[in-house]
Protein: Dehydrogenase/reductase SDR family member 7B
Amino acid sequence: MASAASRTSLLRTRIMDFITSTATLPLLLGCVGVFSLCKLLQWLRTRAYVRNAVVVITGATSGLGRECARVFHAAGAKLVLCGRNAEALEELTRELAASRATEVQTHKPYTVTFDLTDPGAIVGAAAEILQCFGYVDVLINNAGISYRGTIVDTSLDVDKRVMETNYFGPVALTKALLPSMIRRRQGHVVAISSIQGKISVPFRSAYAASKHATQAFFDCLRAEVEQHDIEVTVVSPGYIHTNLSLNAVTADGSKYGVMDKTTAQGRSPSQVARDVLAAVGKKKKDVVLADVAPSLAVYLRTLAPRLFFSLMASRARKEQKPKHC
Ligand SMILES: NC(=O)c1ccc[n+]([C@@H]2O[C@H](COP(=O)([O-])OP(=O)(O)OC[C@H]3O[C@@H](n4cnc5c(N)ncnc54)[C@H](OP(=O)(O)O)[C@@H]3O)[C@@H](O)[C@H]2O)c1
Ligand SMILES: *[C@@H]1O[C@H](CO)[C@@H](O)[C@H](O)[C@H]1NC(C)=O
Structure:
C-alpha cells in the first residue's frame, strides 16, 4: 500500500515537472502567439477591405454615424457622408481632412445632403454618388430617429414618420444602389438596427417596429443577394451615448428633448463605431453589440415568451406614462 502511494506521488511529481518544464509554457506561449497572429491577420484583412473602398454613411452628422465616419476615414475609406444638415457635414469633412493620418493614405470625404423621408431625394442622391464614384463598396444605413410615447396617445403621423426614416429610407437607398452592386458582383450593405429590432420594450412602439422591420428586410436581402456575392450585415446595438433620445419624437410629433439616463450610460459611440468596422471587416451577418442583460432578453423572448411579456408589462406599469405623452 505504502509503496503504491509513494509511487503515485512520484508519478504526480513527474507529471507536474513535465508540465511545468516542457509542455505548459511553450503551449501557453503558442496559444497566445496563434491568437495574436489571428488578431493581426484579421486586422490587416479589415484594413485591406476598407482601404480605398467607397463607403456611404447615412446620419453622419451626429452620434454613431459621425464616429463611423472618423473610424472608416482613418482606415483609408473614400467616404460619402450623408445627412440633412449640410453645414454639419461640411464641418465634419473639414475636421477629417485636417486630421493627421498615420500609416494609411486617407481621402477627403464627399458629402450629399438629403432627407431620408423624401424618396425622390434618395434616388437623386444615389444617382449623384454613382455618377461621382461609379460604384459603392459599403453602404452603412445608420441614420435613424427614436420615439417615446404610449400607443393610445400617438398620432398615426408619428408612426409613419419613424417608419419612413428608419425603414423606408434605408430600404429606398439600398434599392437605389443595389443594381450597381449586383452588376459589379461586389458590395456590402450594413443596417444599423437596434436590440429593439429583436425585442420590444414599452413606450417605444414605433421605433421597435421600424427596427424589427429593418431586421426582417435585411435578413431577406442577405438571402437574396448571396448568389451575387453581396454581403449584408445587421448590427444591433444596445444603448449608445448619443443624442438619439434628445432627438426622439413624442406622441404629438414634438421633440422629446431629454437625455435619458439609459442613453447617457450607454456605450461610447467611438467604441461602437470600431465594433462596426470590425464587423464589416469580418463580413459578419448579424451582430449584437449589447451588455449581458439585453442580450439575455433576446433569448428570453424566444425561449420563455410568457416570462418576457410579464416582465415588460410590469416595466410598463412602473414607468407609467412618460410626461410628454
Ligand atoms: N443611441 C442609441 O442608444 C442607439 C441604440 C441602438 C441603435 N441606435 C441606432 O443608431 C443609429 C444612429 O443613431 P445615433 O444614436 O447616432 O443618434 P443621433 O445622434 O440622433 O443621430 C441620428 C442621425 O440620423 C440622421 N437623421 C435623422 N433623421 C433623418 C432623416 N429624416 N433624413 C436623414 N438623416 C436623418 C441625423 O442627421 P441630421 O439630424 O443631421 O439630419 C443624425 O445624423 C440609429 O439608427 C439608431 O436607431 C442607437
Ligand atoms: C449632441 O448635440 C450637440 C449639440 O448639437 C453636439 O455638440 C454634440 O456633438 C452631439 N453629440 C453627439 C454624440 O453627437
